[in-house]
Structures are given as structure tokens and as C-alpha cells.
Amino acid sequence: MIFREEKKLNEVGDLRYKIKNYKGEDNNATSNSNATNDLPGRKLFKTFCEKDAIFNFLPDKNRSIFGIIQLSNVDMDRIVTDTSEEESFEWYLYHHEAFHQVLDEITRRTGRLTKMMQIIDMANMQLLKMNLTYVKRDAYALHIIEEFYPEHFGAMFIFNSPGWLSGLWTLIRPLFPKSLVEKIDFLPSITKMKKSKVRFGSVLRYISEDHLPEKYGGMNKTWPLPPAGSHFLQD
Questions:
Q1: Strand order in 184-186's β-sheet?
Q2: For the residues of the chain, what is the DSSP string, one character each?
Q3: Do β-strands 54-57 and 184-186 pair in parallel, antiparallel, or remain unpaired?
Q4: 120 has which bridge partners?
Q5: How far apart (Å, rounded) are the C-alpha atoms in residues 102 and 225?
Q6: What does the DSSP assignment read for 25-49?
């Protein structure tokens, strides 16, 4: 594939063990941590994340990898002012290449097409913290990801949606790829979800109730979550 050749993705090797979380600790771009064990862009982008901002979790090695983004803990303004569009895209690209490697291995081993699930947690998010330039960058990157990893996303669930989100979504929805928009599910409160087995079942297609974090209606009391890369650490 020309795209993979241009980006030299066939030369990057196994990236799975480099999948980490963005929990807000060690938030110093000049840290002495071993950058060779990080995906490209992580060292910079983790400085834009507050506590428990992003988790990349693999609770079952035979099922989906899923990401949790607590959006209020991501500094969109600083990402826009302190990084270029190219740097943002590189960060997206190599993370999703690593996710693809995980999903591809599970699919080949189990014989079941395995896709990624994502939770966007809007709790405590304010409209003033939404940066339209960031949203446009995000949409652009997702267009590329959807084009070159067409079986990548299974579903995206929006939790704790604030009242203002419906109006904003009407404005920004055309920016995102239609194939992804069709996979986005705006969920009611956790209390209402537990009363609606149909709605809750949409989440449980990708993760068992035992593995789903308690704060999202599951039984898993572990928090913070371990990173997916811990399953693939090299000796």
C-alpha cells in the first residue's frame, strides 16, 4: 500500500508494547524516561494531559482493545498552540498503527473480526474548553484513519453528555467521516442504562460487564486501568 510505504509503517516493527496511558504523572517533556519505549509524539502529548486523561485498555486478550478519553482532562488549547497539524497527525497515526497491530493479531488468532471500542467521557467538560481547531484536526485525522484502517472502529460511546453537546454536534458532525458518525452512540446516564438492557448491551458487545469499569456501569473496580501495552512487554 502506497500510504504505508510513504509513512514507513512496514518498518516500525512491533508497537504493541508501547501502548501506554496518559494519566498525568511524569508530565515533563524533558523527563529522562526512555523515549525509545514510547510511541512517536507521546512524550510531547502527555504534557497536555491531566490526571487520568486517556486510557488504552485491553481487558481480554481475545476481545477488543478500547480507549477511554476523559475529555475535560485534555488541554485542547495547548495542543493547538504548541503543536503543528503534522505533529498531531503523527501522534494519531502511530497510536492507531499500534492499535491495528493488536486488533489484527486477535482477529487472526481467534478467527473473529475484532474492532476497537472507544468511550468519550464528557463529565465536567465545558463548552468554553472545546477548541474548534482541535476538533477540525481530530476530524481530519479520523478521515485518514477510517480510510486506511476501514475495519478499525467498532463503536464510539459518548458518556455523560452535557446539554450543550447536541447543538455543538449539529455544527461539527459534517466534519467527521460518515462511516464513523454512524458508529457513535450518545448514551443516557448510567442509571438509565442499567434499566435499559438494549442500550447497555451495545457496550457489552465489546467488553464484558466484569471488565467494564464501575464508573461506566460495569463491575470492574480497578482504577486507574492498566495499559494495553503491558500485555506485550518485551523481555
A1: 54-57, 66-70, 116-121, 153-159, 184-186
A2: -HHHHHTTGGGS---GGG---B-STT--TT--S-GGGS-TTHHHHGGGB-TT-EEEE-S-TTS--EEEEEGGGB-HHHHHHHS-HHHHHHHHHHHHHHHHHHHHHHHHHHSS---EEEEEE-TT--GGG--HHHHHHHHHHHHHHHHHSTT-EEEEEEES--TTHHHHHHHHGGGS-HHHHTTEEE---HHHHHH-HHHHHHHHTTS-TTTSBGGGTSSB---SPPPGGGGG---
A3: unpaired
A4: 69, 158
A5: 18
A6: TT--TT--S-GGGS-TTHHHHGGGB
**Residue 56 near residue 67, CB atoms below 8 Å:** yes
Closest CA to 23 of 232, 223, 234: 223
Q: Which residue has the cell 467494564?
A: 212
Q: What is the pLDDT along the chain (235 residues), one digit of tens a residue?
A: 667 777 788 889 999 999 999 987 654 444 444 456 899 889 899 999 999 999 999 999 999 998 999 999 999 999 999 999 999 999 999 999 999 999 999 999 999 999 999 999 999 999 999 999 999 999 999 998 888 888 889 999 999 989 999 999 999 999 999 999 999 999 877 777 777 777 778 888 889 999 999 999 899 999 999 999 999 975 4
Residue type, 135: V
Task: Name the pTM for this structure.
Answer: 0.90
| Cis-peptide into 224, omega within 30 deg | yes
